[in-house]
Amino acid sequence: MDSSASAIDAKVTVLGIAKKTAQFPRMSGAMAFTPGQLGAFDLDVAVDARAMATRDKAIGDQLKGPNFLDVAHHPVVSFSGQRMTMTGATTAQVSGQLTARGTTRPAMMSITFATPPAEVTGREPVRITARTTIDRRQFGMNGYSGLVGKDVTITINARMVPD
Questions:
Q1: CA distances (Å), origin 108, targets 79, 82, 149
Q2: pLDDT tens digits for the chain (163 residues)?
């Protein structure tokens, strides 16, 4: 993953009306697939949750704290996808495991490729947008349940470059 040309963010609804976004500027990742065998697919992405940024420092500190990500004990959030099912020429579903706050749960990422994967030669960069929505409570993030929505939408915009 070309981290200088990639971005990861998480969005949640606050008070049922406003969306708040956190960015994760430090990330790493890799993707591997063979155009003729798209089902055999690997996508691994890890973010340094300690580097999370928000527009409001107080909110950022809360999100890094023990009621949410607890970055002191769990500094990395990761997704590992192993199986891809194409849903269109440039869209797919990737099943895998999301780990946050020391808890691993199944997750499904919806992926859009900028170039159809069947046309990729493996010599050029590949751009993807991947999105999933999780219930933060399933990962032990129970803080401010009356104010902060349970659903968190995670979006990965990545530029993957060949080795």
A1: 10, 10, 20
A2: 999 999 999 999 888 788 889 999 999 999 887 767 777 788 999 999 999 999 988 888 999 999 999 999 999 999 999 889 999 999 999 999 999 999 999 999 999 999 988 888 778 899 999 999 999 999 999 988 888 889 999 999 999 998 7
Which is it for the CA torsion 96, 118, 127, 32, positive or negative? Answer: positive
Sequence-ordered list of residues with C-beta below 8 angstroms from that of 153, at least 6 positions apart, any chain? 10, 11, 12, 131, 132, 133
Question: How crowded is the C-beta side of 34, counted as CA atoms within 13 Å?
Answer: 3
